């Protein structure tokens, strides 16, 4: 069982099961203030179960950080408990996984993704940058170290666009995230259930847990986790934007150390704004490429 505050008598308003999936989601969105008030003292397990019961099209988007690993373990336990209650001899993992493979994860992260999915027998959908199954293909199109030249476009291409494509192709309406208040910055004011500008419902089951709590949980319960944690890392992203946290810094102080206060990769930013800016830059780059090809052709003719 998950440690922490428990309010077993908490009653949360839920949308009727007879509504369509879209109508159920809209009713949840319309009721967010009361839902969050009723979940304010809920344990992570209660939040997870509420989401499983009331959010159609529910997935877990994860980069296999420590909180994501705890989420997988708890969903597995809930899945097994419900199967046993129904008299079934086997259970299926109730919340499928989405892994955005940016192509620049640490090898330990991509290895963990496969190990964890097998360990929990969890269906996992892997998405890479559009048209780029590997680094070589990506860099042939965009050049090396795009994150140094244009980080916003890099974030859009390797994280935001693949995630949006996954959500549209899979019919995702809600996701579990690994965000916690203790991570600071924009995350310090998290609610248990939120909705972004696209209408995607984001559920933060462990919002009230500290790094110490999730780290202790994985070690105590033999949960598969990223071995980089044992080297001192706490927040792990792409290899080029991840370093050891500072002695006096927060949990995510090792991310984007040289980026002047950057705290998010793009998945939790305004999607439409990022899409608009990135597409403008991509159009300009394509026009510049065509102009260069035309100039080269004219020189060759001369």
Automatic annotation (TrEMBL):
Keyword terms, alphabetized: Coiled coil, Cytoplasm, Iron, Iron-sulfur, Metal-binding, Oxidoreductase
Entry annotated with the keyword Phosphoprotein: no
Domain of life, per lineage: Eukaryota
InterPro entries named in the record: PAPS/APS_Rdtase, PAPS_reduct_dom, Rossmann-like_a/b/a_fold
Biochemical pathway: Sulfur metabolism; hydrogen sulfide biosynthesis; sulfite from sulfate
Pfam families: PAPS_reduct (PF01507)
Residues in coiled coil: 275-302
Domain Phosphoadenosine phosphosulphate reductase: 59-243
GO molecular function: iron-sulfur cluster binding; metal ion binding; phosphoadenylyl-sulfate reductase (thioredoxin) activity
One BP term from GO: sulfate assimilation, phosphoadenylyl sulfate reduction by phosphoadenylyl-sulfate reductase (thioredoxin)
GO cellular component, one term: cytoplasm
Family: Belongs to the PAPS reductase family. CysH subfamily.
NCBIfam families reported for this sequence: cysH, PRK02090.1
Protein name from the UniProt record: Putative MET16-3`-phosphoadenylylsulfate reductase
Species the sequence originates in: Acaromyces ingoldii
């Amino acid at each position: 069982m998950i440690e922490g505050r428990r309010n077993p008598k908490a009653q949360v308003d839920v949308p009727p099961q007879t509504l369509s999936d879209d109508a159920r989601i809209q009713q949840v969105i319309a009721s967010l203030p009361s839902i969050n008030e009723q979940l304010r003292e809920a344990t992570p397990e209660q939040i997870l179960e509420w989401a499983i019961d009331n959010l159609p099209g529910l997935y877990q988007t994860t980069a296999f950080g420590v909180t994501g690993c705890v989420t997988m373990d708890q969903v597995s336990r809930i899945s097994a408990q419900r199967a046993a209650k129904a008299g079934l001899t086997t259970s299926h993992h109730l919340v499928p996984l989405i892994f955005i493979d940016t192509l620049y994860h640490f090898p330990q992260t991509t290895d963990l993704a496969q190990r964890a999915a097998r360990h929990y027998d969890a269906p996992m959908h892997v998405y890479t940058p559009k048209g780029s199954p590997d680094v070589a293909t990506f860099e042939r199109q965009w050049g090396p170290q795009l994150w140094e030249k244009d980080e916003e476009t890099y974030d859009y291409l390797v994280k935001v666009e693949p995630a949006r494509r996954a959500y549209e192709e899979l019919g995702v309406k809600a996701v579990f995230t690994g965000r916690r208040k203790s991570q600071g910055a924009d995350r310090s004011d998290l609610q248990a259930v939120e909705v972004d500008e696209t209408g995607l419902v984001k559920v933060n089951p462990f919002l009230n847990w500290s790094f110490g709590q999730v780290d202790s949980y994985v070690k105590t319960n033999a949960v598969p986790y990223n071995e980089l944690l044992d080297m001192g890392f706490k927040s792990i992203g792409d290899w080029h934007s991840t370093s050891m946290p500072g002695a006096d810094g927060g949990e995510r102080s090792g991310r984007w150390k040289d980026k002047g206060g950057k705290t998010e990769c793009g998945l939790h930013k305004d999607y439409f704004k990022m899409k608009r800016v990135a597409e403008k830059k991509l159009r300009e780059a394509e026009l510049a490429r065509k102009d260069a090809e035309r100039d080269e052709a004219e020189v060759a003719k001369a």
